[in-house]
Write a structure and sequence with these properties.
Elements lengths: L4 H30 L9 H8 L4 H9 L4 E6 L14 H11 L3 E7 L5 H4 L8 H16 L6 E5 L5 H11 L5 E4 L10 H12 L5 H11 L11 H11 L15 H16 L10 H4 L2 H14 L5 H10 L7 H10 L14 H6 L2 H11 L20 E6 L2 E6 L23 E6 L2 E6 L9 E9 L2 H9 L7 E5 L4 H4 L8 H9 L4 E5 L12 E6 L16 E5 L4 E5 L26 H6 L13
Parallel strand pairs: 1-2, 1-3, 3-4, 9-10, 10-11, 11-12
Antiparallel strand pairs: 5-6, 7-8, 8-12, 9-13, 13-14
Helix pairs in contact: 1-15, 4-11, 6-7, 7-14, 8-9, 8-20, 10-13
């Protein structure tokens, strides 16, 4: 199938735009590659330090340099359900490496925080910056230069993007990402959301809320709704860094363990001492990122990836912008309905045919680059297959080839909607993005008076006081990366949903984030320039008429002399101290805009 001409054009634009920075990056990777296995250049003392805790067989192999040494970079902790299964992975990986004639060592750990725990709390103001901390920590782990390849253990919101940034810094090494998988299905996400709204409206007590939440989040594995964590897993498959079909296999099962062992073996095979050398810099090219954006749109994925993909790409010298996402969204059919864009969870999606069916169907319709390099080899067609265990042996077999539930998963020729649902907005308030895959058509255009708030707690107080009446656009400013680290404002979702349910026209406009759980209320997010940078949001007043139009792609205010108004100033102490925030002042002072990935790495 010929490539869709828009996909081909956008890809070529990205290649042209990125040519100088990409060429410089690849030159650095070629120079690193030419030095060969790094530990051979270490002093005998340095090597002895690196091998001292290994067993005798591993020491002999490491000292001889006769086999590949695999770095394990792990985000394990047992507070995050998604990362708790990683406790068992190092032993599985070490055994698999030895069976393949190599060795494996835990090179280091990286922090992993849960946005679900910190929603609406001060800790959320560290969340986005944790991505860059993870990249730094992973780079420290790999800086010992004793490794021929790496496996990365991470799942959730900032962890995978941070690990990808680090993997690109060591792009001359092969890298395989090993997921833990989603938890089994519990209380449905729709029922959980209803209880949250009932609690916000005072209709049920906290005991009922707690019971519902514990029934939804009940065991090891990723949360089952299609938020940022599961969007990350989809991306790793579309971009060729997972083994085919690995994303949504549940934890602590024989198939999950077999995929983990095979991932370790494959990483060694991709190393310079293996038989299929494939460094990560060859996998994550411009086409891989375009494939990732197509996957994001086709699945109705998290708005957080509008920031993370840009930061991930820049780490490899590739320059993406929001217009690329919008242009690709227009040609990408929305093929999946997974909560919050539908009632199903990721386990239901996987059972219906999942990513294997989706990738195959998109390939058939010319909507993916088929010839990208992947950790599996053989181009993206390998990702139409699914893993199975037969007599204890792992193999890949043809997937369903069709949707087994068209209420969850549909072909590109008969999608839920013709576009992916990510829209770039622009106007006299700046630029923003909106996810509309779950927003009903009648809610995609709103013109109403603004109510201005400088933090989400003030919104909640106004709601409780009964002040949010009539049609309105809730503006929450001073929530950008320079102001307070750009927290997610997902805890506002129940309140805004209640207002919409009452028949009010309501929208959110913010320079903050809304999260992968963005839902039915229209939300113009990531507004640039942010209020802290003197953006127009800082000059808005209560009662200004705002127009948020996701159909045309505009974000406007009807106000004479807007630029002549004095800009509001943020509370100088807001978001600066407590819960470790004082330690991140340097991040707030150097971070780039959301449009450039909200990163401290030259964004």
């Amino acid at each position: 199938m010929a490539l869709n001409p828009v996909l081909a054009r956008v890809t070529e634009q990205i290649i042209t735009r990125s040519a100088p920075t990409r060429a410089a990056y690849l030159a650095r990777m070629r120079a690193a590659r030419s030095k060969g296995p790094a530990r051979a250049h270490l002093s005998c003392s340095g090597q002895a330090h690196a091998y001292a805790a290994s067993d005798d067989a591993d020491k002999a192999a490491l000292a001889a340099g006769s086999a590949g040494n695999l770095a394990i970079v792990t985000a394990y902790n047992d507070m995050l359900s998604a990362h708790q299964p990683f406790e068992r992975f190092p032993d599985l990986i070490r055994t698999a490496a030895r069976d393949a004639g190599g060795t494996a060592q835990v090179a280091g750990g990286v922090p992993a925080m849960c946005d679900g725990v910190t929603q609406g709390e001060a800790g959320m103001e560290l969340s986005l910056f944790s991505r860059d901390v993870i990249a730094l920590a992973a780079s420290v782990a790999l800086s010992h230069n004793t490794f021929d390849a790496a496996v990365f253990l991470g799942v959730c919101d900032k962890i995978v993007p941070g690990l990808v940034i680090a993997a690109q810094a060591f792009g001359h090494l092969p890298a395989v990402f090993l997921p833990a998988g989603p938890m089994t299905s519990g209380l449905s996400n729709d029922e959980k959301a209803k209880v949250r709204q009932q609690f916000a409206a005072g209709e049920v007590d906290r005991d009922a809320l707690m019971q519902a939440e514990m029934a939804a989040y009940h065991g090891p594995g990723t949360c089952t709704f299609y938020g940022t964590a599961n969007t990350n897993q989809m991306l790793m498959e579309f971009m060729g860094l997972h083994l085919p079909g690995a994303s949504f296999v549940t934890p602590n099962t024989p198939l999950r363990d077999a995929l983990t062992r095979e991932g370790a073996r494959r990483a060694l095979a991709l190393g310079a001492q293996g038989d299929a050398y494939t460094p990560v810099c060859d996998i994550l090219d411009e086409r891989a990122f375009v494939n990732g954006i197509i996957g994001l749109n086709a699945t109705g994925g998290s708005t957080n990836l509008l920031i993370h993909l840009i930061a991930m790409a820049r780490a490899g010298g590739i320059i993406l912008d929001w217009q690329d996402f919008s242009a690709l969204s227009e040609i990408t059919p929305l093929m999946a309905r997974v909560y919050p864009n539908g009632l199903a969870d990721v386990n239901h999606f996987h059972a219906a045919g999942g990513l294997g069916y989706m990738i195959g169907n998109l390939l058939e319709n010319g909507l993916l680059h088929p010839d990208t390099a992947t950790v599996a080899g053989g181009g993206l067609a390998a990702y139409t297959q699914e893993p199975r265990l037969q007599d204890g042996a792992l193999g890949w077999h043809a997937g369903a080839g069709r949707s087994l539930n068209d209420k969850i998963l549909r072909p590109a020729t008969d999608p839920f909607q013709s576009s992916g649902g990510l829209v770039r907005l622009a106007g006299n308030l700046g630029t923003a993005v909106m996810k509309i895959s779950a927003v009903a058509p009648e809610h995609r255009i709103i013109e109403a008076p603004a109510r201005i708030f400088d933090n989400q707690d003030a919104v909640k107080a106004a709601f409780k006081a009964g002040e949010l009446t009539g049609d309105l656009v809730v503006v929450v400013r001073f929530q950008g990366p320079k102001a307070n680290g750009m927290p997610e404002l997902h805890s506002l979702t129940p309140l805004l949903s209640i207002l919409q349910g009452r028949g009010q026209k309501v929208a959110l406009v913010t320079d903050g984030r809304m999260s992968g759980a963005s839902g039915r209320v229209p939300a113009a997010i990531h507004v640039c320039p942010e209020a802290m940078d003197g953006g127009p949001l800082a000059r808005l007043r209560d009662g200004d008429i705002l127009c948020v139009d996701a159909e045309v792609g505009t974000l406007e205010v009807q106000a004479e002399g807007l630029q002549d108004r004095p800009a509001a100033k943020a509370d100088p102490d807001a978001g600066q101290f407590g819960v470790g925030r004082e330690l991140f002042a340097a991040f707030r002072g150097t971070v780039g805009s959301a449009e450039t990935g909200a990163t401290i790495f030259g964004g």
